[in-house]
Structures are given as structure tokens and as C-alpha cells.
Amino acid sequence: MYDVIIIGAGVCGSSIARELSRYQANICVLEKEEDVCCGTSKANSAIVHAGYDAAEGSQKARLNVRGNELMGKLSRELDFPFLRIGSLVLCFGEPDLAKLKALYERGIANGVQGLRILNREETLELEPHVSREVYASLYAPTAGIVCPFELNFALAENAYANGVNFQFQTEVTGIQKLAEGYELTTTRGVLKARCVVNAAGLYGDKLHNMVSKQKLRFTARRGDYCLLDKEAGAHVSRTIFPLPDQKGKGILVTPTVHGNLLMGPTAIDTENKEGTNTTAEGLSQVLESAKRSVEGIQERQIITSFAGLRAHPEGEDFIIEEVEDSKGFIDCIGIESPGIASCPAIGELVAELLRKNMNLKEKDDFLSERKGLKKISAMSLEERNALIRKQPAYGNIVCRCEMISEGEILEAIRRPLGAKSLDGIKRRVRAGMGRCQGGFCTPRVMEILARELCLLPEEITKSGGNSQMLLGQNKDHL
Predict the structure, then answer these.
(1) Active site residue: 49, 208, 235, 258, which one?
(2) I need a surface site. Which of 330, 332, 361, 476 has the fewest CB within 10 A?
(3) In the structure, how many helices (H) and strands (E) does the chain have?
């Protein structure tokens, strides 16, 4: 029997696992997909929000501000990119100034530091490419951007290094309350735990309803995005928002930590919890809204589009609590924006709740630091040459767009919780994320994966499951 089973290996599940690994406990993370960061955590705006948007006194507000405070220290400990670039919320006329001031007042009440309302001239001085029709803006200097993939991998790898067990392709199909703890039926057998944490994202309502009489229902809310080439990456230097509406913070324009420009998301409700397809209507909405906020955006610079889903609960707040009629079952669900910003604080909160409930004792040997993958593009010429002399694979460039070497791909596969698919490689080292979107490097990456994992080429998948890239060989022609 495990002490704690965490269901879901997104940023929240992995953050909880990392914080719990500080204690003397037998912990397991179950993930129905083939890797960490395969659900909501893989497709979002990557914004570390300042915390002015959520209602005063809500869990969203409290955890957003606390998570924002923690992110800098966490990025240094776990070696993932985080840039505190600030954000602007734009107002396009005096009638909307009251809404901007309300955001400011809410941010002050939530404890956000450094907020200022700027006039038109001050706004354009900070961001010359925002719309000339801007009337005023709310400036939040504590807002930032992060790589959600690298954040998720960093949390999971550090949890693993501290003794947490991860089981992939393990879907929970049933939960039974025992006299002490819970029995979980999965696609890979039966497991037991004293306590369970439900961090299952879009399917968090389904798991909650297995143990509680108080039923929940989540709506899948799709967000469409467009990613622009690095040529456009410096078009704005801060995250640019319109005034928020009833469905969220609106369609933003932001630089990314890797030098691209990102636009999105839409907020389109759907019944399909696997429906991550983009639509022409959604992408047109992204482009039109982004152009209203920022001038000079070039459609020809779009290199890809994608969509993500987030779980929208019937209420407006996160659901993070012990289930009233199922003691020892902790919900960490309904985590939509600002989930990325809040995840360090969510991990802290849930771990503290379990520490008290289970009387957990701290370890003497907790490893607080983790080193990320080597990146030759970030090295000096001397450092790169020294590395290549020791490990020649780092001199073989596989992805030309992002300058990713064979050595980096090998390390991504061989690390703890290493990559097993094309998307696993893509999220860890960015091979296939550049201008040609994998047109050049995909065959070579597949070759390396097949060799390292002792698989046939037709067994290599895009993202696990039945997503094979090849149909197989015609033996009659061999």
C-alpha cells in the first residue's frame, strides 16, 4: 500500500509530488498517457500571471500571488527558464477606464506588487507596437513567462530523484473506499493507498464522482493558439492583454521564453474532452483579436497553430480540498488559468494538508535542486567545443531550425522519466518546434528513438498509444 497516490502528472500533480517528496512517505504518480505534460499542461499561454484578475479572497487569487512569488526561486533550483517580463492590460476608451481601475483595486487587494495605471503615452513608450487607439493600460511588472514543458519535467524529475514512483499508461477506471484508504482499479492492475490526490485535469470530475455523493461536472474549454516565427519574437517585450471578459483573460500577445511570439487563446466550450483540433473560425478569432491589441502582426510569420483544453468547473474557483464525504481523498481540480502561475503554491498547499493529516516527517536527504538538459545553443564556442571533444554526438546537429544536437536528444531519452516518443523529444529539447516544424529532423529523431529504445521504426509513435508514424514495411519487396 502506498501512503499517497497522485492521479495526474501535469504541472499540479508533479508539483504536489515534488513537495510531498520532502517527507518520509511512499508516493506514486499515476498517468494515463505515456509521459508527463500530456494534458492541459502541454498547451497553454505559459504566463505566470501577476494575480490581479481573480476574485479577492478566492483560492485562485491567493495561490496565483503565492505561486508568482515562488516561481523565481523554483526556476533557479530546478533549472528551467522563467522571465519576469511584466504585462499590460489595454483599455481603448474612457468608458472602459472604470474596468481597468477595478482590476487595479482587485490586484492591490490580492497583494500584487508594483501595479500602475499608465496613460496612452506611457503605454506606447513601453510597447510601441500596441494599438495607437490605446487609451490607458494596467501595468503589472511581476508577471512573467515560463516554458510549461520544462517546468513540468523539472518538477517530475526532481520528485523522481527524491523517491517518487511514476507509472505511465495507467488509467484509473475505478476507486473503492476501504476501511483504511482506497483501492484503485487501473488498466495495469489494482493499487492501494492511504490517501489519494485527484489531479486528473479534465477528468477530475469523473474521479471525484467515483467517491463522493456531491457530483461535479466540468466543461472542456478549448483555447486556440497561433505561434509565430522567431523573426516576430521581439515585436512586443511584455505580455499584452485586452480587458478580460466573462470567459477569461481574453486573447493575448506575448513573447515566449524561446524567442517566438504567441497569440491566443480562444475560449470555446466543447463536450469533447479530447478535442484539441483547431478550427478556421477559432484561428481567425485569434488573429483578429490580436491585431486589435498589437499593430504590425504578420500572418505569414505564423509557423504553427494548436489548441489546448482546460477544465472549467461550474463555480469560478479552483477546487482544492479534502472531499467532505471521502476522508483522505484530496481534490486538486478545476485548475484553469492561472494554473501554471499557481502550481508551485498548489503543491505547497496540498503537501501541507497531507503532512498534517498523515503526520509526515521531513527527510534529512531531500534534494532541492535539479540540473536541466545541456543546451549547446546556450553555450559559448569554447564550452561547445570542449563538450563535443568529450561527447561527439553533441557536434551532430539534427534539428537545424532550433540547433538541437544528437547529444541533446540522447540525453532527453536517457534521463530519468526520459522521452519515449516524438512529442516527448519535442517538448524536452524543441526538435521539431522550429520554422520547418519537423520537416527536416523527424526521420532522424525517429531513427535515434528506435535505436535507443530497441524498437522497430514502425513502433515509434508521435505521442504514445496508437499514434504510430509509419504503417510498416512491405515484406514482399524486401
Answers:
(1) 49
(2) 476
(3) 12, 22
Q: Tell me how far CA of residue 204 lies from CA of 37, 83, 94, 148, 426, in angstroms.
A: 16, 31, 42, 20, 27
- Output the nine-digit C-alpha cell for 231: 523573426
Contact yes or no for 154/38 (Cβ under 8 A): no
Q: What is the pTM of this model?
A: 0.96
Residue found under cell 522521452: 419
* DSSP notation for 114-157: S-EEEEHHHHHHH-TTB-TT--EEEEETT-EEE-HHHHHHHHHH
Q: Minimal CA–CA distance to 116: which of 127, 126, 104, 128?
A: 104
C-alpha cell at position 199: 489531479
448-471 pLDDT, tens digit each:
999 999 999 999 999 999 999 998
235 included as an active-site residue = no
The alpha carbon dihedral of 92, 95, 98, 103 has a sign of: negative
Answer yes or no: are the C-beta atoms of 342 and 366 closer than 8 Å. Answer: no
Identity of residue 257 = V
Residue 108's alpha-carbon distances to 51, 67, 350, 402, in angstroms, are: 9, 16, 26, 41
Q: For 323-367, what is each residue's pLDDT tens digit?
A: 999 999 999 999 999 999 999 999 999 999 999 999 999 999 999
